């Protein structure tokens, strides 16, 4: 249910429309990202959705994260998808049969993938606790959130710098971002192998918006390699071609430690180790991934930084302990012609890049979740004016077009699913 077209829509109507999207996307014990393309429970979506549910229906916020973390593996990883057993294998590719997680010793419950997504959940839990405290749930989640951090900081510290590596583009949440082009370029494309499978995404959504067949062939090859190694992380450097330190993923990891420090005080645990880990992550990010006014992703195998300037390079703004000169240059980049906070929010990729693509998913379109993170970051660093402009530009996109999955960065038109859960959820947070 999109709001009526036109800028005249009231905040009250916008709120009610968002609530209706979240209600329609609620399924038993979790919220699906959208009814059209994503019929299962997604990891980082659940974090953003819980921020909105904390305003709208806090019991559901706690329940949504409870069911996601019930699928946490023994080693601490929280899978990027928890599959709904009532949904047919045909309705999402790659589904449970491909991931074969039922056969994996590290899995505890549910049918899941074996890869992760950015750990935004602790940020949501702070909001949930503030608005509607549930001590039993908080204690249950705190242990599991801390376990997730340990998995990412220890087992995924493949590069040795104290940052987590992602082992698949899907782990970043920014699937086909130009951030991975250089790394993916070295991985052979096996279109023959893809004939064994049938993509579903580009039949449900416009194929001009979706990752290409060559991208998909690589996604499947990388996932199959990790799966065939039993989803183990030891020795990855010798047997896995996609190992990347993403600045967005690691900034969220650091912000999660800050959030956990706050939560530790509530549950009577020691907040100091969380603060220490947070400051180590910030230092490692600045020392390893910062170059020319923005953060870049790093290919752990070659040590090379990606030349692509993407929205994940700005996300470290969420870190409260980022040095002031780094904050200044990130704000300068975010407000420059490359990203240009203004009438429109920040696109997913540098507007001035020759291969900027206004339709293709994370290669140009505007996404509300990453802009919401930047909005939080700007406020954390006292940049109230830029934050206010960004907030208004996000709300005006949704007022005009509805709760879309992503938006055309030239016209502001809504594209992708029209009833996307995190867009609705974060709209509610922006309105309060
Ligand atoms: C793969 C669910 C997810 C988001 C990601 C987004 C997209 C999946 C896909 O949808 O990725 O995880 O099939 O394209 O890129 O950020 O979590 O909304």
UniProtKB/TrEMBL annotation:
Recorded superkingdom: Bacteria
Keyword Glycosyltransferase attributed: no
Keyword vocabulary terms for this entry: Glycosidase, Hydrolase
SUPFAM superfamilies found in the cross-reference section: Six-hairpin glycosidases (SSF48208)
Family matches, as InterPro entries: 6-hairpin_glycosidase_sf (IPR008928), 6hp_glycosidase-like_sf (IPR012341), Glycoside_hydrolase_63 (IPR004888), MGH1-like_GH (IPR054491)
Database matches in Gene3D superfamilies: 1.50.10.10
Domain annotation Mannosylglycerate hydrolase MGH1-like glycoside hydrolase: ranges: 38-423
Protein family per UniProt: Belongs to the glycosyl hydrolase 63 family.
Full protein name: Mannosylglycerate hydrolase MGH1-like glycoside hydrolase domain-containing protein
């Amino acid at each position: 249910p999109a709001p009526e077209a036109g800028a005249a829509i009231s905040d009250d109507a916008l709120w009610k429309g968002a609530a209706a999207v979240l209600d329609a996307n609620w399924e038993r014990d979790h919220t699906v990202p959208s009814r059209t393309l994503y019929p299962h429970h997604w990891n980082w979506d659940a974090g953003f959705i819980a921020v909105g549910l904390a305003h709208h229906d806090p019991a559901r916020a706690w329940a949504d994260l409870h069911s996601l973390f019930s699928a946490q593996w023994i080693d601490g990883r929280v899978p990027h998808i928890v599959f709904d057993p009532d949904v047919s294998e045909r309705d999402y590719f790659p589904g449970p049969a491909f991931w074969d997680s039922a056969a994996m010793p590290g899995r505890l419950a549910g049918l899941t993938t074996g890869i992760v997504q950015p750990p935004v959940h602790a940020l949501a839990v702070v909001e949930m606790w503030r608005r509607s405290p549930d001590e039993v749930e908080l204690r249950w989640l705190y242990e599991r959130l801390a376990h997730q951090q340990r998995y990412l900081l220890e087992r995924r510290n493949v590069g040795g710098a104290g940052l987590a590596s992602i082992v698949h583009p899907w782990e970043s949440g920014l699937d086909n971002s130009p951030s991975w082009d250089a790394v993916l370029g070295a991985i052979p494309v096996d279109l023959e192998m893809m004939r064994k499978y049938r993509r579903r995404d580009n039949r449900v959504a416009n194929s001009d918006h979706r990752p290409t067949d060559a991208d998909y062939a690589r996604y499947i090859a990388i996932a199959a390699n990790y799966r065939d190694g039993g989803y183990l992380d030891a020795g990855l450097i010798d047997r896995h071609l996609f190992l990347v330190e993403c600045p967005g993923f690691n900034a969220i990891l650091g912000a999660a430690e800050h959030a956990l420090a706050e939560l530790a005080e509530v549950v009577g645990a020691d907040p100091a180790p969380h603060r220490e880990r947070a400051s180590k992550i910030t230092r490692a990010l600045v020392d390893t991934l910062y170059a020319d006014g923005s953060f870049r992703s790093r290919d752990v195998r070659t040590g090379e930084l990606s030349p692509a300037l993407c929205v994940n390079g700005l996300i470290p703004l969420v870190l409260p302990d980022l040095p002031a000169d780094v904050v200044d240059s990130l704000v300068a980049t975010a407000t420059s012609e490359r990203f240009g906070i203004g009438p429109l929010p920040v696109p997913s990729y540098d507007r001035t890049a020759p291969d900027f693509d206004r339709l293709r998913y994370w290669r140009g379109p505007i996404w509300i979740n990453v802009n919401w993170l930047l909005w939080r970051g700007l406020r954390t660093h006292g940049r109230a004016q830029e934050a206010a402009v960004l907030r208004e530009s996000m709300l005006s996109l949704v007022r005009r077009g509805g709760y879309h999955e992503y938006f055309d960065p030239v016209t502001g038109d809504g594209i992708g699913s029209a009833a996307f859960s995190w867009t609705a959820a974060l709209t509610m947070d922006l309105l309060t």
